Amino acid sequence: MNKINPQKLLLSKWTAVTPKNKEKHFLVTRIIKDEEELLIVACILEAVINGHEYQINWRELKNASIWLAGWQ
């Protein structure tokens, strides 16, 4: 399990354990918060190789079988 500090999530780097479409390295480019702007509900990951963006639940990054912290 990856440890994540929600306050340091923005601009953090991640590596996909099983890359798809040659997209292996990602950068968190945006944070999506709830209506009260208190809790993070999702984040936008941008693939470094081609700039494609994906919205995911930020807690999915804790799953070490899918994501590795940093660029490996």
In brief, what are we looking at here?
With 72 residues, the chain is an all-beta fold. The chain contains no helices and five strands.
CATH C-level class is Mainly Beta
Strand order of the largest sheet: 4-3-2-1-5
Unreliable stretches covering 5 or more consecutive residues: none
The tally of helices reads: 0
Q: How helical, in percent, are the residues? A: under 10%
Extended strand count: 5
Mean pLDDT value: 95
Largest sheet: 5 strands, antiparallel
Shape: globular
How many structural domains?
A: 1
CATH topology name:
Thrombin, subunit H
Write the layout of secondary structure elements.
Blueprint: E1 13-20, E2 23-33, E3 40-47, E4 53-56, E5 67-69
Antiparallel strand pairs: 1-2, 1-5, 2-3, 3-4
Characterization of this structure:
- With 72 residues, this protein is mostly beta strands.
- Helix content is 0%, strand content 47%.
- The protein has a 5-stranded antiparallel β-sheet with strand order 4-3-2-1-5, with no helix packed on it.
- The chain is globular and about 35 Å long.
- The mean pLDDT is 95.
Write a concise keyword list for the protein shown above.
single chain; 72 residues; mainly beta; five-stranded antiparallel β-sheet; 5 strands
